[in-house]
Amino acid sequence: MNAPQDSAALRAAADAGRSDHVATAASLLAKIAAEFAPAVLANSLGAEDMVLTDMIWRARLDIDMFSLDTGRLHTETYDLMDTIERHYGIRLKRYTPQQEALEKYTSRHGLDGFYQSLELRRSCCGIRKVEPLRRALAGKRAWITGMRAQQTASRAGLPLRQWDEAHGLEKFNPLADWSEQEIWDYLRKYRVPYNALHDRHYPSIGCAPCTRAIAAGEDIRAGRWWWENADTKECGLHRIPVGISAEANIGADDVKARSAGRSQNQDTKECGLHLASPLQRKSA
Question: What is the pTM of this model?
Fold first, then answer.
């Protein structure tokens, strides 16, 4: 007899929890705009960053946005960049790799040289992501990401606020304690545009040659750098340095054999934007 009431109570509690998370994130964004200007959102064009984009736009906050255009993104990702500007009437600044460094890399190692070894893959990420990020953050007092603690084991305990020593500014993660369900509840409720690849089993999206769709039951980041040993799946944007496993260095001939993918330990799936130096935690 009590089951329907208990079920309703649980749903109400869950709804209240989601509302609290939205309010907390919105309040933090307002605080960042007021106390840490100039601040900027690093929009990776994933579902989480679209939530933040919508929140910033709805509150008319003075927070700039940028994306890293690596030159190797999916067509759907470029389409989303254009959609953001049309839908919200905002300018999304795009940072691209330094042409000289890119030409030097490709002339020596080929367009897809990153498949040959871990060192070459990280070098590619450094040119296409890490260096452009430094330019994007120059002169800022704070930057905002869509990182969540539940995305991978390496992000467990992710705080809302950190000190980014590498770039000399505050780093905020307003969605750190959100679940994936909460992200999608928000996107659907407010009809927020998102990357079409999410509907094709791409929960985590990076560069086209370094991302694949995942199979049922795989970790949400299993499709990132799918040919590497799980211990080294980082690009440098968000991670503290870790040791490099020799098993991660594989040849191009191994790529096709591993292209079907496999379920892996997700402790280190990152691209490199957060690899440069340790990040010290601060209370929000």
Answer: 0.77
Residue 235 among the catalytic residues: yes
Domain CATH for 208? 3.40.50.620
**pLDDT tens-digit readout, 143-155:** 999 999 887 777 7
Domains in the chain, number: 1
Q: Given the DSSP bridges, would you call strands 64-68 and 39-42 parallel, antiparallel or unpaired? A: parallel
What 3-state class would DSSP assign to 149?
A: helix
Q: Which of these is catalytic: 124, 210, 235, 271?
A: 235
CA 52 – CA 194 distance, rounded (Å) = 12
Q: How far apart are CA 186 and CA 201, in angstroms?
A: 19
Give the domain range for residue 251: 3-282
Residue whose structure tokens are 């369900």: 181
CA 23, CA 38: separation in Å to the nearest integer?
22
Amino acid identity, position 269 = K
pLDDT tens per residue, range 10-38: 344 445 556 789 999 999 999 999 999 99
**DSSP 8-state class, residue 210:** G
